[in-house]
């Protein structure tokens, strides 16, 4: 039964093989066709799987198809199997669907690039790993997907590697992620130590019967969450995501907004049964999430690079998803994951369309500026109507305007925070929502409204992107608007269908720790009303500053210069990291100089690597090349070991 | 005859020999002398084996000693060849002059 | 003390290897010096040895009055060692006969002698992995070492090769002194026992009043084995010797003796010294942690790929020691032992693959250097070779889906089970650290403009080695089940330490 489940990841993998091995010989047309077709097929298969799942009773919706015993040795029994339940069904639909749209868009965006075949091969490989991540029925399988998407992300960020900074950004992403992966791996080891099995259902069964002390759950939850923090760019490991914008824009849309970065949220949701056993771990998830949501939103207020604004916005929205999970409303977190995939992918693709057009105009006027700086844009509304209207739809959705997808999912998270007794978290999330509405509309106004602020004559060369790019925008635009209608809450006389659909996936968690949240309707309406009010005031605030009185922000910036600089420079976190690592570990001026020399002069952003390289250059001096020194060192070792053994 | 006291003396002598060997390896710079010091260490080991063997009236230790001696002879053959090779390259057997590879 | 003729069966692989060595040396002396003949002979012979090793499996039990064991652990390791020798032989010929226009690398080496020495070293390691007596442990180590001293210096025309041999020889003999002294003290302290199981029993019988020199003996034996494994602080010989030796020998040395010495370490500590685990456990813990950390940190700052791989090999020895500690301290041959077997197989494939490509790249340079810079921009010129190298590096770094990842997963999860959580945390952090220098090669190959393109000339035998290694890594990375099952079965069919020792151990279990 459901034997085609394997095909869902395997079909994109086949695309990777064909495009990777024969891509150059096939020609661009064939490569694009194959690349899109395999993802389309995966999407069709996902729909089939979803439909099949709907045919079951809600609590029977758990299909585990084990292909073969993958690893079997002693106590370690790991099947190679796929797990289809409501949670993974949603994930494969979102992943394959959004991927398909972005693949189509890429045909236009990457047109004429030298690495066209390589690009599609990597992208197909990414989809393979991502689908494996969400479909795998065990931790090791998930980890393979987890590492695989990281590898693809790294390859795609550094796609235009001739540019040194971009290759460096790729490296930074990879290495920061390794810190998270380390947490994940330790978590998996602890899981194996505690339960002796590594499949999700196997662990879930044992959790239900657990009688021993629960501290182990705290540590497992924390370690896994470290993994999620790295992959989903939360405080303090978010630093890689803004740099990751160096990759091609569709990559940012797919990997760094819609899918890969949400893997952490998926993982926390998948482990809901672990987290509910440890309120402490959940508390950490919620607070890290909300802190990130607010923190990243404040940085986004003043960024001038169109993709940087969206990057910080992504970090902030991911924070919301963790808030949802952290307050025990896993379904709400996943809802936001889905709607965010729609509108954020759309925003990035729209931004890509804008960058494409501006770059085109720059090329025609022989100007070599940064095509992503919104200070030199404006008035694009008339030039590219489709891009504009879809962008506005997505912006309204992310701002939380009622009726659009983002409203339902975000409001659900905020409401659940209050309902489940995390009022402080809820209030901070509301403030972040206000900021979100403001910075997103600032972006819209500066990019599309007003008049062109670039060089004169350039505006004549601006025009709408080709159909292969605008069609995906339109599809995503429609999804951004209607995507939330399946989650209309009871309070608004909706069916909360989505939440109900997901419920079985969190049944174990619910059994262990049912959430007795508040059900007061007036309270819910109040929260909802405040949210809407905040969203609208954010929009009006942006309008007041960037349309009606454009001098106001500048005045404010010069008045609160310190605060402005702090935000503009992203709280100097990158700098602080470097400084902290150096200051605490080396503590000498000489080390500081060496470190910065390596870091800045050589362009190695990689702080730890430099530090370790430095340590290595010290320790290698032990290796003098002289036999007598080696013999002496060995003798010292002998004396220490024997001394220890005798006088222990 | 008090075996226990006797054994102690033998062991102490062997330990002393062993330490002299180690000290020789650490302080000398001539590869040949170092090699001789290592042989001294091996002989200290042999003495220990024999002493135990005699005190425990168990011949296994003596068999072990024969094997050690045989292996040591093989080591001498290879070791001297290696030292000769080094001498051909460097015209010296001072091990402080042998440090092409380091760090 | 009886001689049982069927005992011979358990040492058939050793006999075959020695016979092969004699045959190759004599063929070169008396019949022909044609390199192809000699190589083919050795390869064919080693395949037979591998088959023999596998065929003698299932005959678990001791032999020669407990001097050696013909059990799962030893047969697995013998097959592995024959495999290591096989790939080393395959990559050697093109190394020893350089292309005519290149420098004099490898000239003047007699192939037959070289293969003969390699085979004798292999025989020594085979003795070591099946040794269950101090005498056989000593003989195994020495047979291996003496052959390796010769191999390290076999390119006597090059100063570095001679220097490697001298360093290896002097320090190796020095370490042998400590090892033997330890054996002598153990012999005395246990009332004249040399058999590992009997030593274990004798120590249990001693009860709480153990003589001081028992501990000294245990410590010195540990040190002697540590030297072979190249664990900190007894690792100093390794980088210099690895760098100076002929590269196929380096590849052989970094995989084979390490595997053999680790097996001996497990046998000695689980078999003979479980009662003293409270003493050596913490010492081994610290050594393991130091070994992986130092290896990784120093590897980052290397510029020569052979030296980098040498330090990387030290780091891997550290990971393996984590497993060895778990295997030895749980007293039974369990999943940790199986994990080590898996890890060693994976390590051997990725390491030999990496060294083979290192030879190819260095051959493309007039000066025959091994600079890491030579890999810049290689991918554009040699996509397949670069892809293989990237695979080896990813596997060495322990990133899935490669064999290296499962080796780590298997060893570390066994160590967690045995209660060494903090050590595993250190190990995982270390393997995250190791990504820096492994990934640097990948970055150089794929993301750097080429400086001076290295035109690699592929030789068929080299290509074969690379393909075997790459396919093996992928196979064991994607479908590790078979190998794991085999390792597990081998581990379970291993001569058990004495039951009393195992019972007593439970009191010391962490």
Question: Would you write up a description of this structure?
Answer:
The complex is a heterotrimer of chains A (648), B (103) and C (510). Chain A is mainly α and 648 residues long. Chain A has three domains: 136 residues, no CATH class; 403 residues, no CATH class; 76 residues, no CATH class. Helices cover 72% and strands 3% of the residues of chain A. Chain A has 29 helices and two strands. A two-stranded antiparallel ribbon of chain A has the order 1-2. Chain B is an all-alpha fold. Chain B has one domain: Helix Hairpins. Chain B is 80% helix and 0% strand. The longest helix of chain B has 31 residues. Chain B is elongated and about 50 Å long. The radius of gyration of chain C is 22 Å and the shape is globular. The longest helix of chain C is centred in the middle third of the chain and has 31 residues. Helices cover 75% and strands 1% of the residues of chain C. In chain C, helix 4 packs antiparallel against helix 5, helix 5 runs antiparallel to helix 6 and helix 14 crosses helix 20. In chain C, a hairpin with a 4-residue loop joins strand 1 and strand 2. Chain C has one domain.
CATH topology of chain B: Helix Hairpins
Average pLDDT of chain C, rounded to a whole number, is 85
Oligomer: heterotrimer
Our Rg estimate of chain B from Cα atoms comes to: 17 Å
Sheet with the most strands, sense and barrel status of chain B: none
Largest interface: A-C, 62 and 70 residues
Number of strands of chain C: 2
């Amino acid at each position: 039964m459901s034997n085609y489940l394997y095909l869902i990841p395997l079909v994109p993998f086949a695309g990777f093989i064909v495009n990777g091995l024969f891509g150059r010989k096939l020609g661009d047309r064939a490569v694009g066709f194959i690349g899109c077709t395999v993802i389309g097929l995966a999407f069709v298969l996902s729909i089939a799987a979803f439909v099949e799942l709907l045919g079951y009773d809600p609590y029977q919706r758990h299909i585990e198809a084990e292909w073969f015993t993958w690893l079997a040795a002693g106590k370690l029994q790991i099947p190679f199997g796929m797990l289809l339940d409501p949670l993974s069904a949603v994930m494969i639909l979102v992943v394959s669907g959004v991927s398909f749209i972005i693949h189509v868009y890429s045909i236009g965006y990457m047109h004429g690039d030298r690495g066209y075949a390589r690009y599609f091969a990597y992208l197909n490989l990414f989809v393979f790993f991502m689908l494996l991540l969400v479909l795998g029925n065990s931790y090791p399988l998930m980890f393979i997907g987890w590492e695989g998407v990281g590898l693809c992300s790294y390859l795609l960020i550094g796609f235009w590697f001739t540019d040194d900074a971009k290759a460096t950004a790729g490296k930074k992403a990879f290495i920061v992620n390794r810190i998270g992966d380390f947490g994940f791996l330790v978590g998996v080891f602890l899981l194996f130590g505690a339960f002796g099995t590594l499949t999700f259902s196997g662990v879930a069964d044992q959790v239900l019967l657990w009688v021993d002390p629960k501290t182990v759950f705290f540590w497992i939850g924390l370690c896994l969450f470290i993994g999620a923090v790295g992959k989903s760019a939360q405080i303090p490991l978010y630093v890689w995501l803004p740099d990751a914008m160096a990759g091609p824009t569709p990559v940012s849309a797919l990997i760094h907004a819609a899918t890969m970065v949400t893997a952490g949220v998926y993982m926390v949701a998948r482990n809901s049964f672990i987290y509910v056993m440890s309120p402490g771990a959940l508390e950490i998830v919620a607070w890290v999430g909300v802190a990130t949501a607010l923190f990243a939103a404040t940085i986004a207020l003043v960024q001038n690079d169109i993709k940087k604004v969206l990057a910080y916005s992504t970090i902030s929205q991911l924070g919301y998803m963790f808030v949802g999970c952290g307050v025990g409303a896993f379904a709400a977190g996943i809802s936001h994951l889905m709607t965010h995939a729609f509108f954020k992918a759309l925003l990035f693709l729209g931004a890509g369309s804008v960058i494409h057009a501006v770059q085109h105009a720059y090329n025609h006027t022989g100007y070599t500026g940064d095509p992503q700086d919104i200070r030199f844009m404006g008035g694009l509304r008339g030039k590219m109507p489709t891009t504009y209207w879809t962008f506005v739809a997505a912006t309204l959705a992310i701002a939380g305007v009622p009726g659009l997808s983002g409203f339902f999912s975000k409001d659900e998270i905020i409401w659940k925070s209050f309902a489940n007794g995390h009022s402080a978290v809820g209030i901070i999330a509301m403030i972040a929502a206000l900021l979100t509405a403001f910075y997103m509309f600032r972006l819209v106004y500066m990019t599309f409204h007003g008049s062109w602020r670039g060089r004169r004559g350039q505006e004549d060369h601006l025009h709408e992107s080709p159909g292969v790019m605008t069609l995906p925008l339109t599809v995503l635009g429609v999804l951004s608007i209607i995507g939330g209608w399946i989650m209309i809450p009871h309070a608004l006389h909706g069916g909360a269908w989505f939440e109900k659909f997901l419920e079985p996936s969190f049944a174990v968690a619910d059994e262990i720790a049912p959430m007795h949240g508040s059900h007061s309707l007036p309270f819910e309406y109040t929260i909802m009303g405040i949210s809407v009010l905040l969203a609208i005031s954010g929009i009006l605030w942006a309008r007041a500053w960037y349309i009606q009185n454009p001098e106001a922000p500048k005045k404010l910036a010069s008045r609160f210069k310190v605060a402005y600089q702090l935000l503009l420079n992203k709280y100097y976190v990158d700098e602080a990291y470097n400084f902290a690592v150096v200051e605490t570990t080396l503590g000498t001026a000489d080390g500081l100089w060496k470190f910065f020399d390596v870091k800045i002069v050589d362009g190695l952003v990689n702080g730890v690597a430099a530090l370790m390289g430095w340590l290595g250059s010290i320790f290698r001096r032990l290796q003098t090349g002289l036999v007598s020194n080696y013999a002496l060192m060995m003798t010292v070792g002998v004396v220490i070991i024997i001394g220890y053994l005798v006088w222990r | 005859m008090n075996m226990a006291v006797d054994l102690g003396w033998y062991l102490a002598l062997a330990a002393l020999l062993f330490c002299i060997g180690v000290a020789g390896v650490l302080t000398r710079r001539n590869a040949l002398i170092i090699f001789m010091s290592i042989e001294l260490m091996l002989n200290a080991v042999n003495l220990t084996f024999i002493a135990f063997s005699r005190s425990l009236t168990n011949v296994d230790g003596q068999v072990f000693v024969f094997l050690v001696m045989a292996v040591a002879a093989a080591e001498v053959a290879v070791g001297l060849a290696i030292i000769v090779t080094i001498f051909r390259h460097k015209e010296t057997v001072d091990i402080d002059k042998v440090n092409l590879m380091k760090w | 003390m009886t001689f049982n003729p069927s005992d011979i069966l358990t040492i058939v692989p050793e006999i075959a290897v020695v016979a092969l060595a004699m045959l190759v040396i004599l063929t070169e002396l008396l019949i022909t010096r044609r390199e192809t003949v000699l190589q083919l002979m050795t390869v064919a012979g080693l395949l037979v040895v591998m088959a023999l090793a596998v065929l003698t499996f299932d005959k678990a039990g001791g032999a020669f009055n407990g001097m050696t064991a013909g059990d799962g652990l030893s047969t697995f390791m013998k097959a592995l060692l024959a495999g290591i020798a096989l790939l080393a032989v395959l990559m050697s010929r093109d190394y020893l006969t350089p292309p005519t226009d290149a420098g004099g690398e490898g000239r003047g080496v007699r192939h037959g002698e070289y293969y003969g020495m390699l085979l004798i070293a292999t025989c020594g390691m085979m003795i070591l992995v099946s040794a269950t007596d101090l005498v056989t442990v000593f003989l195994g180590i020495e047979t291996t070492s003496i052959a390796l001293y010769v191999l390290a210096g076999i390119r006597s025309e090059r100063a570095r090769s001679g220097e490697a041999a001298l360093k290896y020889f002097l320090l190796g003999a020095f370490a042998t002194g400590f090892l033997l002294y330890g054996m002598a003290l153990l012999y005395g302290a246990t009332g004249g026992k040399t058999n590992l199981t009997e030593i274990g029993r004798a120590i249990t019988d001693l009860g709480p009043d153990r003589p001081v020199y028992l501990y000294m003996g245990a410590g010195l034996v540990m040190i002697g084995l540590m030297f072979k494994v190249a664990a900190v602080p007894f690792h100093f010989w390794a980088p210099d010797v690895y760098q100076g030796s002929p590269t196929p020998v380096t590849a052989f040395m970094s995989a084979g003796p390490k595997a053999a010495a680790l097996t001996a370490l497990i046998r000695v500590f689980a078999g003979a010294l479980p009662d003293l685990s409270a003493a050596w456990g913490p010492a081994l813990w610290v050594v393991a942690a130091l070994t992986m950390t130092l290896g990784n940190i120093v590897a980052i700052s290397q510029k020569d790929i052979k030296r980098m791989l040498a330090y990387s090999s030290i780091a891997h020895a550290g990971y393996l020691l984590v497993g060895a500690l778990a295997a030895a301290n749980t007293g039974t041959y369990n999943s940790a032992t199986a994990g080590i077997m898996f890890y060693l197989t994976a390590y051997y494939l990725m390491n030999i693959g990496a060294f083979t490509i290192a030879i190819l790249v260095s051959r493309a340079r007039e000066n025959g250097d091994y600079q890491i810079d030579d890999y810049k921009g290689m991918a554009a010129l040699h996509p397949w070779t670069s892809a293989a190298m990237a695979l080896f590096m990813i596997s060495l770094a322990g990133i899935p889906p490669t064999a290296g990842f499962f080796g780590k997963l298997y060893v570390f999860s066994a160590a967690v089970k045995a209660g060494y959580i903090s050590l595993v945390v250190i190990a995982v952090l270390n393997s995250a650290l190791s990504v820096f220098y492994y990934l640097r090669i990948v970055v150089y190959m794929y993301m750097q403009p080429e400086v001076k393109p290295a035109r690699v000339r592929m030789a068929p035998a080299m290509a074969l080695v690379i393909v075997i290694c790459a396919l093996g890594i992928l196979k064991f990375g994607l479908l590790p089940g078979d190998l794991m099952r085999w390792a597990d079965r081998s581990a379970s069919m291993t001569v058990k330490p004495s039951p009393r020792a195992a019972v007593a151990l439970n009191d010391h279990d962490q």
